């Protein structure tokens, strides 16, 4: 996708007061999000070295942040045989259709390609996410009502 098309999309968002837009055209995909007044800015703490005149030798430990690539690399050989169900969009993950209902799936649940495994809410639209694979849910990788990113791993499934 060229820069002019992206500029047009951004202008469309501004003109129509849109916060987020996601488009897919074949292999090309664009996800744009504008900051809103309610957005929280998250900053990463900076590690500082103690000054030489300090008597204390306390040095803060670096903050450990595990990325998706590190998580994938850390998988055991057994987990490599599993299929990943990923979020197709940015939003909020819900394991059930309402707080009073049981989760769509739990560890050990059998799923088919048409089985709904969760809901991802994006811009007040509740999107049912299907397994798209037949097998058994082996691991749930996200907490209920947690934020999800595009492509984030949600479940590990042992295929049949």
What topology does this entry show?
Blueprint: H1 3-15, E1 20-25, E2 28-33, H2 68-73, H3 77-80, E3 83-86, E4 91-94, E5 110-111, E6 116-122, E7 125-130, E8 135-140, E9 147-148, E10 153-159
Antiparallel strand pairs: 1-2, 3-10, 4-6, 4-9, 5-8, 6-7, 8-10
Give the key terms.
single chain, four-stranded antiparallel beta sheet, globular, 3 helices, OB fold (Dihydrolipoamide Acetyltransferase, E2P)
Shape: globular
| Main sheet characteristics | 4 strands, antiparallel
The CATH architecture of the largest domain would be Beta Barrel
The unreliable regions are none
CATH class placement of the largest domain: Mainly Beta
Report the span from N to C terminus. 38 Å
User: What number of domains?
Assistant: 2
**Separate helix tally:** 3
Q: Roughly what fraction of the amino acids lie in strands?
A: 25-35%
Radius of gyration: 20 Å
